[in-house]
Amino acid sequence: MTSCWVRRAAIAALISCAGFGAAVLAQGPPTGRGRGGPPEAPPGVQQIPRDPPVDAGLEEQGRTFWAQHCVSCHGSQARGSDSGPNIIRSLVVNNDRSSPNPGSVLGPYLKKGHHNVAALTDPQIVAIAHFVRQRVNDTMRGSPIFVPGDVLTGDAKAGEAFFNGAGGCTTCHNATARNLAGVRSRVINTVDLQQRMLFPMMTGRGGRGRGRGAAPQPLNPNAETVSITPPSGPALSGVLVAQDSFYVTVREASGQIKVVKRVPGMKVVTTNPMQAHIDLLDRLTDKNIHDLVAYLETLK
Q1: 292: closest CA among 15, 13, 89?
Q2: Which entry of 79, 237, 265, 289 is 20 to 30 Å from 100 by CA?
Q3: In whole angstroms, how far apart are CA 224 and each of 247, 269, 300?
Q4: Beta carbons of 247 and 208 less than 8 angstroms apart
Q5: Which residues of the chain register pLDDT less than 50?
Q6: Rounded to two decimals, what is the model's pTM?
């Protein structure tokens, strides 16, 4: 059975043409609270920030080795060909990209006997790792050569049918709750529309707390909320700011931040309005995504 992460990796690969996939894949869910997450790096591999540095000289060397050993299968930009897959979003490439030592993950994989490249030397593998890192960086939206792809390729009628049926979208989105009427006119472009559909939780929990005396603000409808019922004393509720095994931090409607220590008998219930979107990621197909985007594009 396809794992939760494999499904999300597939979605990340799909939306990478719009410049979001690599960011999501490299960083994982924004809060780390949803199911799944980025692939764990092998033991001893230290995670580093997105867009790791690339040595221009080694990348140029890697281009030569890539042309000699890899281009016939994976293409000139590592995005695949008729005879080999796109490896930009592969776990090996992204784990290697997250390593402070280029080639530390890619090298052992290649030396296990991957086609005709087992005889590559360590310096050649490092050069190829730099080349592949740059190919991944080029898919980022901030890259100077990034060009958004056309994500409007689905069937709007099929998307509407999925929205109203198997997708379960009408459970939350209707005439009175989370109304999507005119949604396309409220976003910048179709790429942004797709991103908001897939990952609306990236808007956060409703903002940070404000200082004492600040006027309360309306609750973000996407905010994750929590209710805390202690074994004795009054209950409290509000926007969930943070929680762990020892404390729960909540922002009440007044704007005041409270940190509550967990004690035996305390009941803590969280509610995530975006949970349906999180669950949907596990069962969306590429066709579902394209069709839904095509349908939402009509809601102007």
Answers
A1: 15
A2: 79
A3: 16, 11, 28
A4: no
A5: 1-7, 9-39, 41, 45-48, 203-215
A6: 0.51
